């Protein structure tokens, strides 16, 4: 009986690992229109509870499951950008964000 329970336990672990998605690395750099790095950009990956931010040189790094992913880059003062990627290996995703122009009109 113990042997059968051990074999069943092993098989459940084996089957579970077959269906688990491999975690891959997503990294990149966020820049502005002048190729200057932008820090503190929030990066959200659909279905992943945590968000990450770019560091002082505009770089970021995280792990994501393989397959189709929706990645959103946003920060105050910049137009948000959403990118859909197919992740099959460790991926480099560099993004350029456009600064939002103020629409204040001046009075003469």
Automatic annotation (TrEMBL):
Signal sequence, start to end: 1-20
Domain of life: Bacteria
Keywords for the protein's UniProt record, in alphabetical order: Signal
SUPFAM superfamilies found in the cross-reference section: Carboxypeptidase regulatory domain-like
InterPro entries: CarboxyPept-like_regulatory
Keyword Signal among UniProt keywords: yes
Keyword Phosphoprotein: no
Gene3D superfamilies in the cross-refs: Carboxypeptidase-like, regulatory domain (2.60.40.1120)
Protein name (record): TonB-dependent receptor plug domain-containing protein
Annotated source species: Sphingobacterium paucimobilis HER1398
